[in-house]
Structure formats: C-alpha cells, structure tokens
UniProtKB/TrEMBL annotation, chain A:
The keyword Glycoprotein does not apply. One of its GO terms (biological process) is peptide transport. Pfam families: BPD_transp_1, OppC_N. It is a multi-pass membrane protein. Keywords: Cell membrane, Membrane, Peptide transport, Protein transport, Transmembrane, Transmembrane helix, Transport. Residues 100-313 form the ABC transmembrane type-1 domain. CDD domains: TM_PBP2. One of its GO terms (cellular component) is plasma membrane. PANTHER family: OLIGOPEPTIDE TRANSPORT SYSTEM PERMEASE PROTEIN AMID (PTHR43386:SF24), OLIGOPEPTIDE TRANSPORT SYSTEM PERMEASE PROTEIN APPC (PTHR43386). The chain crosses the membrane at residues 41-61, 103-128, 140-159, 179-197, 244-269, 290-312. This is ABC transporter permease.
UniProtKB/TrEMBL annotation, chain B:
Its main location: membrane. PANTHER family: DIPEPTIDE TRANSPORT SYSTEM PERMEASE PROTEIN DPPB-RELATED (PTHR43163:SF6). Residues 101-305 form the ABC transmembrane type-1 domain. The keyword Lipid biosynthesis does not apply. InterPro entries: BPD_transp_1_N, MetI-like, MetI-like_sf. It is found in: Cell membrane. CDD domains: TM_PBP2 (cd06261). It comes from Caldilineaceae bacterium SB0661_bin_32. Keywords: Cell membrane, Membrane, Transmembrane, Transmembrane helix, Transport. GO terms for cellular component: plasma membrane. This is ABC transporter permease. Belongs to the binding-protein-dependent transport system permease family. One of its GO terms (biological process) is transmembrane transport. It is a multi-pass membrane protein.
Automatic annotation (TrEMBL), chain C:
This is ABC transporter substrate-binding protein. GO terms for molecular function: peptide transmembrane transporter activity. GO terms for cellular component: cell envelope. Residues 98-494 form the Solute-binding protein family domain. Coiled coil: none annotated.
Length: 327, 315, 581
C-alpha cells in the first residue's frame, strides 16, 4: 500500500537520508530475516543450483544435447543414460542440463530487458508527468489488456525474421563468429516477447514509487532549498524501491521460466534441437500416456525451480519489507 | 468522482483501438496466414495446392491487400456491429462469441468463488501459523500446483476422473454450472491462481497485524476473532481485490487448455482454434473481448478500492 | 478463547473444501442424444440385422471443424461429411472401383477420352421431393465454382472441362463444357483427355447442391467484397443451429442442427425422401474435439462409436489395446522432404543421391511416427495405395558405402566436412515431422559426416531468410492413386494451377506425363510406362519420402456394416448399423 504514510515510515526515510551506516544495518537485518526463514533457504539453494547448473551444466553433461542414439530410443534409466533417452534417442540428463542454461539465460535476459524498459518508461512517466505520463500509462494499459498468450506468441512469430535478418547483417558486416550461429535468434525472440509482456509491471511500480516519493516532505524541502529534484528523487528512489524491485525480479525469473515453457508448448518458443525444458515437454507430450517419464522429468524440473524461486521471492519479500517482518 | 469515472470509461475506447491495432499488425506481419493452414489441412488428406492456387485463394479472401485497407475494412465492419466471418469454416464470428461469453464468464466466476472460499481461508491460516510447518505446507503446496503447466494438469485430471476413478464421462459440450465437469474445470482454473491469492492474503494479514490500530484494538481488549473480523480481514482483502484484474489474463491462459480438453464452448476454445488455424477475425474478436473485460475489471477494481480502503480517494 | 476461534475457522474451511469435493465426486455420466428429432413414423419399415441394437444413432467425433453445409472445399473431410448430406456423382470403394452415386455407372465416353455422357439416377430426388436433374447439377457448379465464390476444388473437379480457364478468370458466366441433354443426361466436353473423370467426380466436392436456395444472394452481389463474405453469407443461411433443417439435400441423411464451434453440434436424421436403399441408422450425432488425448479417452471409455482420425504417436496406446478398432484409409500421399534444386548445395545431383542413400528408411518411420505411418519403399514416392505399385522398385536402399561414393563424385565432396550448410524447413511444429528431419540429420552426420545442417519451423526463421532453404518438409502425393497424377504433382512444369513443387524438369518429361494422364489407366503398358517415368524421376533424386501417410478411422467393435472409400474420406454409412453391445 503505497498510499500508506505512517509517521514511522517517514521517520525511516529521514533516518536513511542522514545515516548511511544505519542503511548497512538494514541490509544485514534483512539478510538475517531471510536466513531465519527455512523456506527461503530452500529457495535460495535451488536458485543458486539453477545458476550453477546453467553455467557448468553443459560441461558436466555426459553427451551433447543433440546427439541421437537411434539404437536406443525412448529407454528408461540405464547405466549409459542415467535418466533414459527421449523419442529420438537423446540423453535426457544432458538435455535437462543444457535446458538449465536455456532457462537461466531466458530468465536473466528477459528480466533485465523488461526491468530496463519498465524502469526507463516508468521513470519518464513519473518524472515528466502530464502528456508523457498519460501516454505511458495508456501503453501500460494496452499491453496489460492484450491476452499475454496471444501477444507473446504473435510477437515471437512476427519478429523472428527481422531479428534473424539483423543478425545476418551483423555477420556480413563484422564477420564476428558470434553472429554466425542462428541459435541466438530464437533466444532473442523469446526474450523480446517475454520482456514486452513483463515490462508494464515494473513500469507501474517505479512510477508509483516516484509519485509517492514526490509527495514526501523532504523532497519538497529539498526543492525549496534549491537542490535538483532529480538528484533527490534518485537518491531516495534507490533505497526505497530496491526491496520491492528485488522481490518483483525474483518472481519475474520464475514467471519467465514458466512462460517460456508455455511459448514452447505453442511451438513459438526455443526451437529444437536446442534443449529447453518447455520444448522437451512439447516434443514428448503426445506419448505421455505410455512414456510419462519423458514429460514428467522436465515438468518436475520446472516445478521445482519455480517453487524454489517463489520461496526465495516470498522470503525476500518478508525480509526486505520491515513493516511485516517481526511476527 | 463522476468525472473520474467518465474519464476512465472514455479512455477504454482509444485503448481498445490501440490494442486491436497492435494485434492486427502482428497478425498481418506474421509469417503464417489461414491459407497456409488450409493448404496443410488439405495436403494431409492427399489434396495438394500449388503456389498459384494459394495466391489466388489469398486474393479472393482479401489477404493480399495492404495493412491499412484490411484494418480499415475490419474497423468499418466493426462499427456496423459485424465481427466478420471465419476464414476457415465461413461461419460468422459474433454468434460464436455471444455463445462463448457466458460459458467463460461462468467458469471465471466459479473459479473466483473457489479461490475466495478456499484461497482466503488458507491464506489466513498460513499467516496465523507464520513460519511453521503448516505455513510451509500451504504456501509450498499451492506454489507447486501453480508451477505445473495447465496443459499437463488438465489431461492428467481428466484421465484420473474418467478412466481410473471412473466417476464421470468426458464432458461433451456445455452442461450448465451444476454439472460435475464445470466444478472440476473451475477447480483446475482456480488451482493455478490459488497460490497468488494465498500469498496475497497471507502477506496482507501479516502486514495489517503490525499496524498500530490492530495493536490498539487488541489493547482495548477486543477478542481475537473480532480483531480479525473487523480490522484485519477487510484490509487483507485489498490486495486480493487488486489482483482480480490481473487474473483475467491468467484465466485466459488456463481456459485455452482447459476448454479444449473439456469441450467447453468458451472463449478459450475459440481462441485456441483461431490461433492454431490463424483464423484472423476469430483472433481479433476474442482479443477485443478479453481486452475489454480486462479493462472493465480493472476499472471496477479501482472503483471498489476506496470502499475497502478509506485512505484512497479519487479527486 | 482465541485458540478456539481459530479451530472454528479451520473447521469451516475443511467443511467448505469437503463439500466442494463432494460436488465433483458424484458425477453423473453425460448422456445425450435423446433429444434427436424422431422422424421414424414417416419412414418405411427398415429391416434391421438380427444383432442390431435398439438405439441406432451413431456417435462420431472428429478432430477438425465442420464446414458450412454444402460449400465445397470448406468442409473437406469434416464431421459434416459423416452426414452423407450430398451425394457425389460417383462413389469409389476401398479397391478403387467406381460405384454408382448420384449418377449411374453406365456412362459413355468417346475414343480419345474427351467427351463423356453421364446419366443421373432416375429415382434421384432432393429432400423436398423434386427430381434431381442435369440442369440442377450444372446450375450448382456454375454457381459454386464461379470466381466470386472461388471454391478451390474447381481445379481438380472441373480442371479438364472445356472452358474452365475462361470461367475461372471471370470471362464467362458458365462452364462451356457442361450441357444438359435432357433432365437426366449430362454431356461433358473436355479440353484434354482424361481417363479418370468418374474417379474425380467421386470426390465429395463434386456433389451438387441446390442452387435455388442461394440464388437470391446473387441479387445482393454488390454487398460482398470478396469470396469470404460470399461464403459467410452462405454459411449464415444454414449453419446457425436449427436453420440447418431447411437445407435441401440429396443424400440419405439430412441435418437438423449444425452449429459451428465452439458448440460443434452436428445432428443428422434420415432424409425422408431418400431415393436409395433405406439406411439402418436413424441418425448421426457428430462433434468436433480439438484434442487428440480427449478423443482417445472418449474412445477408450466407450463413449463414441467412431473417431476420425487418431493418427500418429497419440494413438499408439489405443492400437496396443484395441488393434481391431483401426481401419486404414488408403491415402495416396507421403511425408516428403523436397530438394529445392536451385539452391546450394542440393543443386548437385550426386549429393542428393548420397543424401538419399544414407537414410535408413524403416527407422525413420519407426522412430518419428512410432510405427503409425508406413516406411518409404527406399525413397520411392509411390506408396502401396497406388495402382501399379511395385515393391521391387527401390531406388535408394540404405547403403552407406554407395552414399559415400555418390558424395565423392559430387562437386561438394569428397567428405561431409566440405558440404555447405543444408537448411531444412519443417513448415510447422508438428513433433513427428520435426523428429523425422532430426533423425535424417543424424543419419547424414553418422553415415556421411555432414555436420552442417540446420532445421527450422518457418522460412522466416532462417538467418538468411527466404530463398536459401535447401529442403522443405511437407506432404506430397496426388488426389487419385494413379501414377500419372503422382507424376503430375511432383514433376510436371505445366505452370498455372498445375505447377509442381520440385520445379525441376528434363527433356521430354512433361510430354510423357501428359501422355500418361491421357492414357486409359486400364491399358496394358500403362504401368510399365509409369514406372519407367518414375525411375527417371527418382534418378534425379528430387524428393525424400520419409514415410507414407496412413489415415485411420477408429471403429468400435459394435459398429457393423461399416466401410471406407479409397478417396474423398467417404464412408459407406448406408449399410452401417449399431450392434447390441
């Protein structure tokens, strides 16, 4: 409740303004609270594991993600294939590990994209106000009211070609090896689609934070003294908005991983043979009745990761929001 | 207040227009159109079309016209109350949406009721037993259910009830809100949003419990129940109400998968059908309605807000 | 005190939860179909077979949508088809024999196969009692195939008829080659020889409907901007629920209710004025369900009598449990990967031959479709459904040694590493097709050492975009199971409506295919010449057939007298009945 302006809150804002040492205490307090919550510890462990796997998983994978063993198709776990093979004889374990990298990249980059977009637009809306605010608020309304499923899948279907052309042009002009492989195109398109449906949340929050800060007495006071409003706002925005922002970003991570699987289910997500948990479910869904493990393994992985991330988000929410901490 | 409301209502029209234009543009730019889909369908049955025939079909359907001509024609029809015809089976769109709306509405309402009567109490319990095993079980369990994709959850549920438990037949068409398939469907949809409601309620209560007026109320010697009922519950409802607007979209996601497997003649099924066969007019019609409903619900939420939270008032 | 209140609250939640679960549990089976219109009293007494059940309403589920009644090309293979609403001129049985439909089979044809005289069944009447005349058929065809409505099946139903090109581009208002000699006799003049016109008119799309039910739309012609609005106006007439009962039909069943999705209710009853042998079924209740798993579930749970068309990996389990339920529809088509021969590197014929020889055909079908589709006969596009099929005709049997030799001879050889990138376009996200492409990719890697292969869903997803795709995954084949049509579809460069996809030709090919099309398919050297031409075609290695398409109906054991056609997805519903379960 951004509108809630208790005196305690005002006092806290003022104390932050004057005492940076105290701020450090605030963070260690938050950390203490986070650690005390067992669920968020579990979440933190899962979260860290995801990123460790995203970075090192492909090196640990026993096989390349697209290597097929056509003699041993759709097998259960065995010594050679610890988690079995899929319908065209690829090692499930390796694909899950590679999928962690896809999930990690999708989660990080789409969140960063949407966060940047949301912060810039939300900031502009609140800071300039008047017509800019009106315009951006309408953009937020429009984006939020288009069915996300439709929006994301249409974006993903539409923008693949322009992005592909751009990458190709970059390769032709720079000759850099990075641009020679088209695998990034899929990822970029998926990030773009997810970022475009997620930014309004961030923009709305940033805008709300700035607007409520603006009303505060110390900002008025600073303006009266002649200090640039922009600098004052920026200085207060960061400590005030960081808590909710971290929480939102954490949930955004989980949301992005789940949303990617939804896009893949519709066939517009990360394209095969690239491994993503979403397209692993998609590829094997028509045999789930007689080979349930092929769907269950990526399914459970997504479930565990998103539960973990949400635990962490909840924990952070409790920890960074001191008003509801002690109970 | 009246001015505020009329402004908010008026703004819906240009917003809807923009929404429609974006969806239209994306459809126009997209790589696949209904003719490609038809070609694939016919080819599956051994009948093949050449490039020239495809081009002719596109011409005769008006799909080769430039963006603004197509968009203008669609808008013109819309202003006359026509929602166009399906590219695939030729039947008009509006009667279908008209039939589908009450079904989807009933599903959403049913799911919302389940959410309120299960989600809020569970949230209260979780808050009450904060940081105990019960709390962990409720929050963790609901999150786990949340993270199972609906397209996995729905067939598994159907299979369980029909084949293994043998409690019902596969739902076929709309049987009204008292039919088991409806309750089951609404429950599945609500399951996915339950986690959100539980968390909102739990967070809201935890926050309210810290407030001075609750302490004061307790100090005044009011019973715990009265404190909860009078001060806590009302405030804890605020975040739940706020998130209702956001749920429309979530319902749309769920109902697409649910209605297809459960054979509910709702908007989600129309939407899936439209999207997979690139039946543009169908997509635009459904998008228009869901977008409109989202905006309307957000408006209602904003108007109800001051009633719940007297601190918020509009000029 | 406070503790007590909390327990009370928890109890309340539990009670609520249990009562909600209780609502779900006592689920009554959804019985429907009882509200079928009872038209039995005006019918002649039907002698049912001894094992027939009391209730004779067939329950059908289909995966695709129902089209708008008689509109050809829209409801191809749809549940509306189950209604046998409109009789096509001929029916073609499972062995490919032409059977009488609306027309009798005693047609006359001249020497060079360019002029046919057909006779309409004497007793054939519309459901309103009016006799079906040759002029009725001509009026309908002139209406529906007109460029304004632009019904696409015109091209294969009427493609050989004289004056069709002028009619198609709107120069003439009628098809010149069609003349009514008298009420029941139709003369058809062709611009080229066509030995298979009766087969082509066995397609459902050739069935005439009643023009006068739509004639008034012609007066409002200027209201309709394009073909879609025409079709829309037609659909509104009889495709809005109860108004379907006004549709005048020529087949054994007439609709009483046709609702498009989302309802997807399609109900048919006996046509009281049906002029053929009386049917056993009292009615048909059809619906559309766009989820294979759900259809499968309904079939397993004995809720439906007939399902079209559970194919592919989803039905593996059903096939294991009820193999006798599967009835094959012979489809003369194959899953194909076409080489776009103007693109690098597949412009080299030896590379193409190498790629074909490196494929283990059986394995592709076995893994990609889990055995639900038939393996290719070593790279021949001709499936066993075709006339002249020869099992020994195996152009590219799996042979890694031979593949390597071909590769060494190609200009991109001698090894796989020197082959430039091959781009495969799957054209859709259907898992088995993508799987097939991936398996082929792996076989090339293992057997030829070609590493540089890229697979994408849509052309636009390739980095280089359009024009650089080397191979396209699609399905190919012909609408009639005759080699001439197959060759026309894959190798003829006539242009216009007959442009083949390979766009590749050699000296004399077109002429030979034209000759095959004009030949009487019954003549002695037809098969020899067809196979010789096919050999030339496969020698150029233009198409990789990854498997032959097999269509399936799933029929419950208690459905009797059911048969399927070779073309057009036509069922013989006239003899179908439900046995006592």
């Amino acid at each position: 409740m951004a509108q809630n302006e208790s005196t305690a809150e005002l006092a806290r804002d003022l104390s932050q303004e004057t005492n940076t040492l105290k701020t450090r205490g605030l963070w260690s307090d938050a950390f203490r609270r986070l650690v005390r919550n067992r669920l968020s510890i579990i979440g933190l462990v899962i979260f860290v594991l995801l990123f460790v796997t995203a970075i090192f998983g492909p090196f640990m994978a026993p096989y390349p993600y697209m290597l097929q063993d056509l003699e041993r198709v759709a097998e259960g776990p065995s010594r050679d294939y610890l988690l079995g093979t899929d319908a065209i004889g690829r090692d499930m374990l390796s694909r899950l590990l590679w999928g962690a990298r896809t999930a990690g990249i999708v989660a990080i980059i789409s969140t960063v994209f949407s966060l940047l977009l949301g912060m810039i637009l939300g900031g502009i809306a609140a800071y300039i106000g008047s017509w800019a605010d009106w315009l951006i608020s309408r953009a937020i309304d429009v984006t939020m009211s288009i069915p996300q499923l439709l929006f994301a899948s249409l974006i993903a279907a539409t923008f693949r070609k322009p992005v592909a052309d751009f990458v190709d042009m970059m390769y032709a002009q720079t000759g850099m090896e990075f641009f020679s492989t088209p695998t990034y195109v899929d990822l970029v398109v998926v990030f773009g689609a997810l970022a475009l449906i997620q930014w309004p949340g961030y923009a709305r929050m940033i805008r709300g934070q700035i607007l409520s800060l603006r009303e505060k007495e110390f900002v008025e006071a600073a303006r009266a003294v002649g200090v640039s409003q922009f600098i004052v706002l920026l200085r207060h925005l960061i400590p005030n908005a960081l808590g909710p922002l971290i929480v939102m970003v954490t949930f955004g991570f989980g949301g992005a991983i789940v949303a990617e699987s939804g896009l893949s289910y519709l066939g517009v997500g990360v394209q095969p043979p690239q491994a993503s948990w979403g397209n692993m479910i998609f590829e094997n869904q028509d045999s789930w009745r007689y080979r349930p493990w092929l769907v269950a393994m990526p399914g459970f992985t997504i479930a565990i990761v998103s539960v973990g991330i949400n635990f962490l988000g909840d924990g952070l929410n409790d920890a960074l929001n001191p008003r509801q901490a002690e109970s | 207040m009246t001015r505020y409301i009329s402004m908010r209502v008026l703004i819906i029209i240009p917003t809807l227009f923009l929404t429609l234009m974006i969806v239209f543009l994306l459809g126009y730019l997209g790589p696949i159109d209904p003719v490609d889909i038809k070609r694939a369908q016919w080819a599956q049955q051994g009948v093949f079309m050449s490039e020239e025939q495809l081009a002719e079909e596109r011409r005769s359907l008006g799909l080769d016209k430039p963006f603004f001509v197509q968009f203008g024609a669609y808008l013109g029809n819309l202003l006359q109350g026509k929602f166009g015809y399906s590219y695939i089976d030729s039947a008009p769109i509006w009667p279908r949406i008209k039939k589908a709306l009450p079904v989807s509405g009933a599903l959403a309402l049913g799911a919302m009721l389940i959410m309120v009567f299960i989600g809020i109490p569970l949230g209260i319990i979780a808050a009450r037993f904060h940081n105990t095993r019960l709390d962990y079980a409720i929050v963790g369990g609901s999150l786990f259910v949340w993270s199972i994709p609906t397209y996995v959850l729905v067939p598994v549920t159907l299979m369980t009830f029909v084949l293994w438990l043998d409690l019902m037949n596969v739902p076929r068409g709309w049987k009204g809100v008292w039919h088991a398939s409806f309750v089951l469907g609404a429950a599945i949809i609500s399951l996915r949003t339950l986690a959100n409601v539980i968390r909102q309620t739990r967070g809201g209560i935890l926050e309210v419990l810290q407030n001075d007026y609750v302490r004061t109320a307790r100090a005044k010697g009011l019973t715990e129940f009265l404190v909860m009922a009078r001060h806590v519950a009302r405030n804890a409802l605020i975040p739940v109400v706020t998130s209702l607007g956001l749920m429309v979209d979530d319902f749309m996601w769920q109902s697409v998968f649910l209605e297809v497997a459960f054979n509910f003649p709702g908007l989600g099924r129309l939407f899936q059908q439209g999207l997979t066969s690139r039946d543009f007019d169908m997509i635009y019609g459904v998008a228009l309605f869901t977008a409109g409903m989202t905006m309307l619900l957000n408006l209602i939420v904003d108007l109800v807000y001051p009633l719940l939270d007297p601190r918020v008032a509009y000029d | 005190m406070s503790r007590f209140r909390w327990q009370f609250l928890i109890g309340l939640v539990l009670v609520l939860g249990i009562s909600l679960t209780a609502c779900v549990a006592p689920a009554a089976p959804a019985g429907d179909g009882g509200d079928m219109a009872d038209s039995g009293d005006m019918m002649p007494e039907v002698m049912l077979p001894d094992d027939a059940a009391e209730d004779q309403i067939l329950n059908v589920v289909h995966e695709g949508g129902c089209g708008s009644g008689p509109f050809p090309g829209i409801d191809y293979g749809s549940p509306c088809n189950f209604g046998h609403m409109f009789m096509p001129p001929f029916l073609v049985d499972i062995d490919g024999n032409v059977m009488p439909g609306l027309f009798t089979t005693d047609w006359e044809v001249n020497e060079d196969l360019t002029e046919y005289i057909f006779h309409i069944q004497e007793e054939a009447v519309w459901s309103d009692g009016k006799s079906i005349t040759a002029q009725d058929a001509i009026d309908w065809w002139n209406y529906i195939f007109h460029s304004d409505r632009n019904s696409w099946p015109r091209n294969f139903v009427m493609g050989a008829v004289k004056g069709i090109d002028e009619f198609a581009d709107g120069t003439t208002e009628t098809i010149a080659g069609l003349t009514a000699l008298d009420d029941k006799t139709l003369k058809v003049e062709l611009w080229r020889s066509e030995g298979s016109l009766p087969q082509l008119w066995g397609f459902r799309e050739a069935a005439p409907a009643r023009f006068d039910q739509y004639a008034d739309l012609l007066e409002r012609a200027d209201e309709f901007a394009d073909a879609r609005e025409w079709r829309g106006a037609m659909a509104e007439r009889f495709f809005q629920g109860e108004n379907a009962a006004d549709l005048i039909v020529s087949g054994p069943f007439k609709p009483v209710h046709l609702s498009p999705e989302p309802d997807a209710i399609y109900r048919f009853v006996r046509n009281p004025n049906w002029w053929g042998e009386p049917t056993y079924l009292d009615g048909i209740e059809a619906t559309t369900i766009r989820d294979f798993q759900t259809i499968l579930l309904m079939f397993e749970n004995d809720e439906i009598d007939l399902a079209l068309q559970l194919a592919g990996p989803s039905s593996v389990l059903l096939r294991q449990n009820q193999p006798e339920a599967f009835r094959e529809i012979p489809v003369s088509a194959f899953w194909a990967m076409y080489f776009l021969t103007e693109q690098e590197p597949v412009d080299d014929v030896n590379l193409r031959r190498a790629l074909m020889s490196a494929i283990e055909w059986e394995k592709v079908a076995e893994i990609a479709w889990e055995g639900e589709q038939a393996p290719s006969n070593a790279g021949s596009p001709m499936s066993s459904a075709y006339q002249c099929f020869d099992a020994n005709f195996q152009p590219y049997p799996f042979n890694p040694e031979r593949a390597k030799e071909f590769l060494a001879e190609s200009k991109y050889g001698p090894t796989g590493e020197t082959v430039p990138k091959i781009r495969i376009l799957t054209g859709g996200s259907d898992p088995p097709r993508i799987r097939a492409a991936q398996i082929v990719q792996e076989m090339w890697r293992v057997n030829l050492g070609i590493e540089n292969v890229e697979i994408k869903n849509a052309e636009s997803e390739f980095v280089d975009g359009e024009g650089l795709v080397a191979m396209q995954v699609t399905s190919g084949g012909s609408f009639l199971p005759r080699p001439g049509y197959l060759l026309e579809a894959v190798a003829h460069t006539r242009g216009g409506a007959h442009q083949s996809w390979t766009k590749y030709t050699e000296e004399g090919w077109d002429e030979e295919i034209d000759a095959l099309l004009s030949m009487d398919p019954g003549s002695a050297d037809y098969c020899d010449r067809s196979l010789a031409m096919l050999e030339k075609f496969t020698d150029a290695a233009l198409v990789i057939p990854t498997g032959y398409i097999r269509g399936w109906y799933q029929v419950q054991p208690w459905v009797g007298g059911y048969g399927q056609s070779r073309i057009s997805f036509w069922h013989t519903m006239t003899e179908t009945y439900l046995k006592e379960r």
